[in-house]
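Z., the sequence and structure:
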Amino acid sequence: MQTMKIQLLLTGNELMAGHIVDSNSAMIADMLADYGYTIDKKVTVGDDLSVLAEEIDQLSRNADLLIVNGGLGPTVDDLTAQALAMASGQIIREHPQATAHLQQWCSERKLPLNQANLKQAMLPADATIIANPIGSAVGFSIEHNHCLIACTPGVPVELRAILNDSLVDIIRQRLPQPISPITRRLQTFGIGESSLQQMVTTTLPDWPQQVELGFRAGFPLLEVKLSCHDPDHHELLLQWQSRLERLIENEFIGLDQASLAGSLVEQLAATGQTVTPAESCTGGLIASMITEVAGASSVFQAGLVTYSDKMKHRLLGVCPATLERHGAVSEAVVIEMVKGAISISDADYGIAVSGIAGPEGGSENKPVGTVWVAWGHKENIHSRRMQINGSRKYFQRVVANRCLDLIRRELQGITAPPRYFRDSQGSSD
């Protein structure tokens, strides 16, 4: 069991004002949990040198490890190094290893090493460097009040790189190693926490206490985490993981970092098939999500963004009479769009979407948030009307993710309608 204390200090006026959302503390806590560690206390402060120095000193008096996140950059409001020096009674000096890192970082990008950048090499005299494999600002650590203080960058991608590259090893060397839990993360789409919990309660009422079940709601996926701390229960966890996967097989996307687009690309690649989206209201988001996945070129040859009626006709062959009679946001139009996309690209599957993202443009019959989707292959096209209320950005993201999911379900031969159809109207198959 963990017997030493870990505390976390987050810095930045943007965090205090709510201009950015704190995701870094969740990332750190999640990483620590994989090794059996937990955070005892978390504090957030603004860019105030004296307050920051005082918090560092106070937190370090009651911790074995203090992780400070943020404030390592080149600007005047990046105060972590100065505050740490003040709290520990050290001088600030240019650290040769940090300078060498900056020189290499700038050289690789053909950038001049200016005075602002050099500020990132001005560290407490006794600092030990924590390598940053991505960014310009190195991490660093010192001992103060018998506590190891590790300072990390606030940029999430840089923080993740440092966590994975070196900080985990530093922590494991410093703290007694708990029994590492075995953890399985299942990614799901199209089901909420309460619905999934009810399914488990009803269908798997004898869920064992030795296997912890947790949920982490995100967008677009809901993560289900199974964990146990006793090695003797590992086999039990795997057995119940299999039972849970069977229970949620229609909504199950994959393990760990699985994504909707990644799952779709993987399934298409496994069968040697291709997909082409024809988009209107999503503006190319579906195509973008697919092509973010490495290896997408084997399953994706083209995507068409046809925003105007003119382009729907010219590029996808949608009949002007169909547009005139039914309007762009209609079942008839998206069916012609998906058929045109499949025909033009010779793809095996197509997705077409046309809707009213808002905030203007709705009517009594077609209010803002109305969207028609068509999907399938040329021998079997499905269509569905949905009503998705929310901001324009939210609408687009929800529609794009549901479109990916509909093709995924088609590939897997899932005939049961997804749960998100329950509040929608106007289906047709």
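The first helix runs from residue 13 to 17. Confidence is low (pLDDT under 50) at residues 425-429.

Let me know what you think.
H.
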